[in-house]
């Protein structure tokens, strides 16, 4: 019986090497909140989610923000839509890394809500309308997290 154990060692080592990538700890995703649910936000968020399996740093959309009462608590990409007054609390509760907004979004957020957002220390990224989808994604991945 003792003679079998040394012969199992190479097999065990090969199994460890084979399965190691499966048990490797994954990096934490970049948690984001999107301000707006218009076509541009919808398209960008969809592209980010579609690229999660291609990119080393996954994106996790925590919330969408919209000020229309009929959109409150609805779902976009299986993510809940919240009102602007809830942003700061969502950032703290979910440890959000980044808030993304796109210029031209008709959503208005009051100054006191922006003050609460800035107090959390979360990064806010404002994307330009003249950037294409690929450029916007690159900027998101380049933002400090």
Automatic annotation (TrEMBL):
Protein name, as recorded: Uncharacterized protein
| Species this protein is from | Marinomonas aquiplantarum
